[in-house]
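Hi U.,

Before I forget, here's the chain from the pilot set. I'm dumping it here mostly so it's searchable later in email.
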Amino acid sequence: LRHLILNGLPVGVRGARTIAAGGPFARLTKLELSGCGLRETGARAVAESAALPDLTILDVSDNNAGKGLARLTSPKAFPRLGHLDVLRNRLPKPVLAKLLKRPGVRA
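Structure:
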């Protein structure tokens, strides 16, 4: 499994943790979770996952993620990432400012 597009589905925190754990999702290069009800906890699970090393595209827009995406400010988080969509997440200004320094960020 290389691409997983779940936009608009009720993935929630539990589903985000399952994906973040890797397993059958470990080889994903594209993960789209827009509007999936991740909230801060689910977004944090995905953002802090070490089990998704091949991600090049990540869409976590419209999830009310807040500080949950703070880990993505580090280039060590998903170093292959070329596109990151974090629109409509009520990000704290310091997190947003750091995210915008990464190439390919849509905020």
